[in-house]
What does this fold into?
Amino acid sequence: MQIFIALLAGLIFGVGLIIAGMTDPSKVIGFLDIAGVWNPSLAFVMLGGITVATLAFRFATTQTQSFFGSAFQIPTTTQIDWRLIIGSLLFGIGWGLAGYCPGPALASIATGGSKPVVFTLAMLGGMAIFELLEFASKKAR
It folds into this structure.
């Protein structure tokens, strides 16, 4: 049941990204181009997402389990370390260069074209490299 709910949530999220136009890299790049022809539409999508997430997390922290009986796994780490900073920088650079972040890239695969496929493959490659480095680091300890 949990897999079905996760799939349904992902599909709803993907359709929302497509409807909002966030699968179009030119919208993202237009938002980041504050010195050129700035497109503020991404700010409204972000504000909507942040609002929904804030309300959902506030509600979740008052509950002991989910609607389907499983335990919540809400992160408790509040420390900002070099890994978070480097990861954020890499994410931002990739987002700015390609105009995609992971969710819209996956949703864009459904709309066709090779760019989201190439981006997704590069993203998966980066994740694999990270996991290999993590494994090597833990093995060296």
